[in-house]
Amino acid sequence: MFKNWLKIAFINYKKNWLSTCINLFGLTIGLTGFILILMHWNDEESYEKWNPKKDDIYSFQAYFDAQKGYGSTISYPMAEEALKRIPEISHFALQNGAGYSTKMIANGKSVFQDGGFQVSEEFFTFFPFKLISGSYTNALKNESSIALSDKAAKNLFGRTNVAGESLTINSKNYVVTAVYQLPKENTQINPDYVALAYDQIKNDKDQWGNFNYGCFFMLKKGADPRLVEEKFKNEVLKLRAQLGAKEAGISVKEYQDKYGPNDVLLTPLDKMKLHAKASWFGAPDFKTILILFIFSVLIVVLSAINFINLKTAQASQRAKEVGVRKAIGSTKASLIFQFLLETFLICLAAFILALGLTELVLPSFNKYLGKELKMTDPMIFIYSFGMMALVSLIAGIIPALYLSNFKAIETLKGNFARSKHGSWLRNGILTLQLIISSFFIIGGLIVNSQVKYMMNKDLGYNGKQIFLLFFNENSPKPWLKYERLKTEMKKIQGVDEISYGEAVPGLNSSSTSNMDYMDKSIQGQHGSMDFNYLQFIGAKLKKGRWLDPNLASDTMTNVLVNEAFVKKMGWTDDEAMKEYIKPGFDYQKYHIVGIVKDFNVRGLQEKIDPVVFFHYKETQWKRFQVFNIQVKVDPNDIDGTVSRLKKYWETNVEPGYPVESFFLDKKFAESYEKYQKQKTLFTVLNAMVLTVALLGLFALSSLMIEQKLKTVVIRKTLGASDSQLIVGLTKQFLIITLVAVLVSIPISYYFMNEWLKDFAFRIDMPWFPYVLSLVLLLILTFVVVSIKAYQATKVNLVKYLKYE
């Protein structure tokens, strides 16, 4: 019997070769997309799985009511008090920075090494990398201790067994206490060298307000993280508020409402990459992956819809087959199994083709994501095979039940093609398919409009021809270095102007703190700078004046703020010019002497933060934060000037260090990359969806028009024109398309409006994508269906009537 079923299946595949090819094509495309996105998701979820202690380690995040958001940092006393007061916590590890770069010298050899971490001493308790040399016991006990990865050890010493060896960084001697091997598995914790953040921790021991550290807590076995969060809130946050309130002379509640944190969240280490609310290693982006996954499933659904539509449309061709088999004793169950087998064979073939296609497109997909995904995880095959089996069941069961329910007497007596049975099912499923197609068209047009808007928006500054060069992190007295270079680099041919600014557009590097006025406090971004920086980047002054190098007060107590600062404080411009603020980075009050028009620093997806601009000498510790010099180059000789700048830098400024540099406008443009990729992705998805949908529509209309050929012949014999016949055959499909687009409009509006909410600067919801979707789908439907309808009008009347 099974062999017989296979023969029948292949006979039908051959007989309906067009629909078979369309089903194979659609399912292959859909399953390929599903496999690729599944690989991406699986890769993102795999971070930190290597860590044997991952089940006990949690990433710390603090919630601030005033900012209505989470932060990923903590102050040292908060972490220390949590360990003392909460018995469920066994250890904590702090991270003060990642991605540090420095020049190491050992045995006369000099090597530039990047990827450095500055941490607290219990770092290796949390991250037990494979030990190559030395010991993790007391590995970070003092300020002269350093641990190297095997890669860094080979770079500097040419071997890995270097525990006990000495090296020098910026004239300071270090002893290698351990050499380790980084995991091959995915991890965000991947330091090439690890040093104790000794000076920072020493300075922050009693500073409850210095949120300078990313933090991990290790809980005791069986401890409930939700209980720890509650204890942290009631014990540590309350203590911080009590101490701060006493110093500020206000109530505990007022202090906590103004400064926070107001709540905490602990996220498991292996969930940090995708599911943390905020992360030291960059904002998690689970939402994008989820959207991609849903889209990939929708394409598979479209393919399944094609399958169902085509199978039900072919019902008339198999009605007599079903009638004969039922008449000779076949059961309904055996018929269902037969039709499910036919569906499974098509889906299995599509699955095999999809695996091959995935291998072909994987290099391009990796380039798009910046990854190195490989088809080595057996779970990918299991999940994708499960999806294929589910599609087989869903796409096969509806036509199987429909065909198996035919009554033998009815199908043997007459022409089933004339029956109305099944039309509601085909029309309903076709409508769903067109709803999905319309959604993709509308979504793609809106994404395109938003990205275009971002690319063309006036940013409030001009970053063209501004070339930024970084100082290395260990530069002593960097403000003096900047002042010296400012004088010397002006002599380089092609250099027009030089300045320095902390709030660099596109860099997201400046720090923030509370900005207080009377009983009000806001969070503001620091903008330490040289006197001419705002004019240098083309920012505009709204009210007041710029900082003046000839006024001593402009390096002592005077500042400028942006419009967002004034708005957040609830002032008018005139009120702001009369006020003094007390920033959290200093103990004195500052007078506002000017208001700068808002300009974008962090990218158009984020709101413009309140910023306070001040000279780098105004606050003593800020002069140690001068980390760049910015040069405006001659637009007529950009390449030559950049070449001369780099040569000067490598020779006279930081020999042995690579030149870290970029143009401001190009750096800011990188903030668009994610959305440009989304635009590209929507374009590709649109092409895939429309191709699958239109091929399915063509095959379905071909079958349905074939069933109406006798009607066409009779009407043509009675004098109907070709145009009348074409309109009659296409009208039903055009009505279905119109209904589908109208249904898709509110659905598309809701989801695209939710997507646009992620942007602080966004387009108003446009109307043209909805109209264009309707017009485009009506035209495509008419073109696709009318091709077959036109062919139907050219049928040989005499020959057809003779044989019918």
TrEMBL record:
Keyword Ion transport among UniProt keywords: no
Annotated ranges, domain MacB-like periplasmic core: 20-233
GO CC term (a single one): plasma membrane
Spans through the membrane: 21-41, 289-310, 335-360, 380-403, 424-447, 681-705, 725-747, 767-790
Membrane topology reported for the UniProt record: Multi-pass membrane protein
Compartments where located: Cell membrane
Domain of life, per lineage: Bacteria
Ranges where the ABC3 transporter permease C-terminal domain occurs: 293-405, 685-796
Keywords: Cell membrane, Membrane, Transmembrane, Transmembrane helix
Pfam families, A to Z: FtsX, MacB_PCD
InterPro entries according to UniProt: ABC3_permease_C, MacB_PCD, Macrolide_Exporter_MacB
GO molecular function: transmembrane transporter activity
Principal subcellular localisation of the protein: membrane
Cell membrane among keywords: yes
Name of this protein: Putative ABC transport system permease protein
